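Subject: for your reference before the review

Hello V.,

The reviewers asked for a structural picture of the protein, and I figured it would be easier to keep everything in one thread rather than splitting it across files. Below is the amino acid sequence we used in the manuscript, unchanged from the supplementary table.
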Amino acid sequence: MVPPRRGGHNSRGNFGRGRSRGDPIGGRQRGQNPCRHFQQTGECPFGDRCRYSHTFLNSRSDTTREFRDNSEENAEQQQAKADYNVWRRLIKSPPRTNDINTMRSLWAKALVILEGSDLDWKLMLPRDLDDEQYYGRDHIRALMSMVANSGGFTEFIEIARPFLLVITHSSLLDCLSVDTAVGGLYNFISGSNGSRAIPFFHRLTASLAEQYSASETLATKELLGSTLVAASIAMRE
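And here is what came back from the structure prediction:
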């Protein structure tokens, strides 16, 4: 599997939600979600191109809150930050050919972050995946381009499962309609006219069916069934 060349990220599929990557935001109103760079430093490297709000937050409510500074972090929050930085380092480099370990680690760690209790990192994860300065989309493309060889269905499913659980996690789906990063990721996963999603889900469901018929334990069948449910949710969204 040859890692794709950087670039070519402007396709948004059929949904037409996001703007092209790197295009100026023009006269559009900024999103309601706060820009983390701006909240932490008062500056943003993306300037007028940033899709997030450059308004300082003055209150902590259920829907918006200030990002805390380091002095306010407890041990659990510091660990959550460290775990997030470990994950983010994975998307700072492009995918390498047949690097199954990185592929598996990236999506497993992303799922742990989304399952955690820290809202800041749950909000940041889809934005960093969609950020043009990182290689999140390239890692998505690499996974969705995988082909399960004969006898390799188990490995394909083991890698695809956490990816599916990430993209169908409630932390992403709950803000799908308001966060352009999440909408952009879904449009990228779809590809133009489903050109990326349809072949991937076709290979995945074929692998699930093959593995299900060969499995002998109830636990394995339940695991495969939950993977199929996640795939169904992803296709529906």
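For the response letter, the relevant points are probably these. The first helix runs from residue 36 to 41. The chain has a mean pLDDT of 76.

Happy to draft the paragraph if you're swamped.

O.
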